[in-house]
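Pilot study result, target chain (449 residues):
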Amino acid sequence: MSDQDLHLLLSVSAAMFVILAAAQIFGRLAPWVGQPVVFGEMAAGVALGPSLFGALAPDVSSELFTSEVRPILFFIAMTGLSLYMFVVGVEHKEPAHKSGHTSMPFVMATAGIAAPVVIGAVAATLVAGDLRPDNIDGTLFAVFVGGALSVTAFPMLARILQQRGMMHTPFGMIATRTAAIDDAFAWCLLAVVGASVGGGPLEGLVRTILPASAFTLAVFCVLPMLFRKPMQAAVREGRIGEGLFGALILLVLGAGWFTDYIGIYSVFGGFIVGMALPRVQGFSSLLSTSVLPTVRSLMLPVFFAFSGLNTDITQLSGHLIPVTLVILVAAFVSKTASSVVVMRAYRCDWRSSAAMGALMNARGLMILIFINIGLGLGVIEQRMYSILVVVALVTTALALPLYRRMYSAAREDEGRAAAAAEAVQAAAGGARTSSRTKATAGDSITPPR
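Predicted structure:
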């Protein structure tokens, strides 16, 4: 090993140590202020950037995160994201239980995409000024900002509900289905935006959309045939063997390379592959146990830190303060209002509707992935990126406290009891009464008190 290689190894190791230590500290502090661990890790990434660490100790920061170290951090972060999105894609495939009106999640997800995209695009157009890059069309810029505001973090929302014991209640199942559909819509929108950058619609169609469509069709046709039996065997054995695990890793990396090559970023490759795998009950739990601990504790903190290095909240002064407030209000109001309107249309009570609207604002990691891709594509510049990071932090921080305020512990107990009773009845083969069958979605979410 040459002296130069040894120096680079020591530099990367030092940067990784600081990043992981900060993530552990902030992550452990987060529950003390009523936030999930991932929020603390997000905050740690921002704190390591020019917003705090770089401002307090600029010489130490520049020595730690050198121009040689940053590309390696980027590689670790993007590899981790590809694996993370792969697991997210697999989790989307898990079968779910009944939860009242089956159309509600789709309708709410559609409204939760449409309203933020429209309202966010209008807000972005009104306040854009010099925040829009000169070479980016105004419509493309506005749609991207609106798309960023439409994101709901399905993995984060699911883990919040798991921690609250609400995952398999009617309320929890509607929330997770809505977030899953929302995410899928948002990634499709981002793929279209990415295909439109750097050329006209025809060029984007030939260079990106057609290859992406062919790739998606191919993996959805081929992967179920190749992986169903090995996945079923893994579930029976209670472990993923080295051969299957290695094949899945190669698949994710190969898919990431291809999608990156055609211009829609490697994270899409992992997500599409995860979605295309066959639906095998229990496999996502095995996969999460095998992959997520390393990805969450090692790779995702690096992504948060890399995002933080690109975020300078100290720039948001003067006229950028009202711009930030406008984008923040547009994000929160559009997402909350669309959820409340749909829930009320399905005859849900106000407190359940408001609680759902609060949870849909948990943008978490997903919006950071979204805007990092936009920054890499040149659709947004540094200041708008920092504004959207603030939106990610504030709306995510509000989600859990507002949910807990709207959805009391007593109501959660009722939901869990109703879900347990339904599971017992289903296991016993009991049939529902006709009155129960005709119950409204609001009644299934909020049992009679």
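One observation from the pilot: Confidence is low (pLDDT under 50) at residues 94-99, 430-435, 437-444. A full batch analysis is planned for the follow-on phase.
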